[in-house]
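Team,

Forwarding the record for the chain on the shared tracking sheet. I've put the sequence and predicted structure together so nobody has to dig through attachments.
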Amino acid sequence: MTKRNRRTHSPAFKAKVALAALKGDKTLAELAQQFDVHPNQITDWKKQLQERVADVFEAGNAAPAAPPVDVKVLHAKIGQLTLENDS
């Protein structure tokens, strides 16, 4: 039996797999084969999703705002780069 290297999955992938498991259209075995992960891993991700789903709706958990941008500095940089390109 060959040993598989440890893999890391993106949060988006984990969410996709966990949501598919929550849907219930396919069995864990089918999902495990489709996404090439162990069924126990799918169960863990599904459990994590169910435990943390309420956090999405918390008021203090909004996405951070973009840092303030100094428009004058950006316009100056655009002008400088335009001059460099024209030369």
